[in-house]
Amino acid sequence: MVKVTDIFAQKDKTFSFEFFPPKTAEGYARFLDALAGFNGLKPDFISCTYGAGGSSREKTLDIVDHIQTKYRIPSVAHLTCVVHTKNEIQGIIAEMERRGICNVLALRGDAPKDNPGWRPGKNNFEYSWELVAFIRGHYDVHFSIGVAGFPEGHVLCPDRDLDARYLKNKITHGADYVITQLFFKPKDYFDYVGRLRKLGVTARIIPGVLPITDYKGLVHFCSLCGASIPQQVHDIFKPIADDPAKILAAGIDFCIKQSRELLQGGAPGLHFYTLNKIHPVDVILKEIR
Ligand SMILES: Cc1cc2nc3c(=O)[nH]c(=O)nc-3n(C[C@H](O)[C@H](O)[C@H](O)COP(=O)(O)OP(=O)(O)OC[C@H]3O[C@@H](n4cnc5c(N)ncnc54)[C@H](O)[C@@H]3O)c2cc1C
């Protein structure tokens, strides 16, 4: 299977999609049906998230395996090290290798809701850089390794300069590229890239973009992940929060403008947080590609 770093070697810009494993059997069946439509949009690669706990964890590898086998789309398996022992991580990565998966997004994750006080011990990894180093050390170049980046700083590390140094540490330990947390101000992304380039990071930094389809859900999600919502976004979406059709139209318009500004400013493509819905990503992609 193709590594995403091989795609980067051929393309200045990539357009990719993030999916999450549906929780129910019905949702899973619907998701598999929707994949044919996503395939029609010809993404350069896709990625699939890894649940911080629970049964959806096992689905990540199934989904990645399915997409790369059936659709021949290069696929990235997210992997979080939180709660797992090093032995378990070793087993999961060996399973990836066995299934021909060669792209991984190496993450720490957050303590699960049913075990919020979890703390790493000597048999666990504490930070994602340790997972990166482990994968690179044991599997050499088999995997292309991506990591998460936070243009506004991580929620536990709002000092943007310090967070950028932690990002550099992930690259130093073997990560190949970065996908960012969602953000709404292109300036935050460009400033972040500037901070990292000053530190000597040359890796590709792909902006993660979320088309807004649910204002109230967005406010809740951002309060958890630490991404800020600019006043302009509140001004546009709050008055129409209870009108799904208007939110959808405004979300498409906003995302097209944000995407164009990012691409025109030199971003190496876009990674769409699709929420497993082909619409409105289909419309946005047609406009900006
Ligand atoms: C693109 C993307 C995809 C994601 N996919 C998933 C997913 O599939 N599943 C999921 O559960 N979550 C996912 N997340 C969320 C992510 O797991 C959380 O944001 C988590 O809190 C941080 O993960 P990390 O890999 O950045 O952790 P780390 O890189 O380990 O950083 C965690 C915190 O520790 C700090 N830090 C890092 N290194 C050090 C150090 N050496 N010393 C002290 N402090 C340090 C950082 O600044 C940060 O505050 C994703 C996030 C993004 C942006």
Plain-language structure description:
The structure is a single chain. The chain has one domain: Alpha-Beta Barrel (TIM Barrel). The radius of gyration is 18 Å and the shape is globular. It has 11 helices and 8 strands. The chain is α/β, with parallel strands linked by helices and 289 residues long. It has an 8-stranded parallel beta barrel, surrounded by 5 helices. The mean pLDDT is 96.
Key attributes of the depicted protein:
289 residues, alpha/beta, 8 strands, 15% strand, binds flavin-adenine dinucleotide
Strand segment tally? 8
Q: Mean pLDDT across all residues, rounded?
A: 96
Shape: globular
Question: What fraction of the residues are assigned to beta strands by DSSP?
Answer: 15-25%
State the name of the first-level CATH class: Alpha Beta
CATH architecture: Alpha-Beta Barrel
Characterize the quaternary organization of these chains: single chain
Tally of domains: 1
Sheet/helix structural class: alpha/beta
Distance between the termini: 25 Å
Order of helices and strands: HEHEHEHEHEHEHEHHHEH
User: What's the main sheet like?
Assistant: 8 strands, parallel, barrel
Report the CATH topology name. Answer: TIM Barrel
Number of helices: 11
| Side-by-side strand order of the widest sheet | 1-2-3-4-5-6-7-8
Ligands, deduplicated? flavin-adenine dinucleotide
Query: What integer value in Å does the Rg equal?
Result: 18 Å
Q: What fraction, in percent, of the residue positions are helical?
A: 40-55%
Low-confidence stretches: none
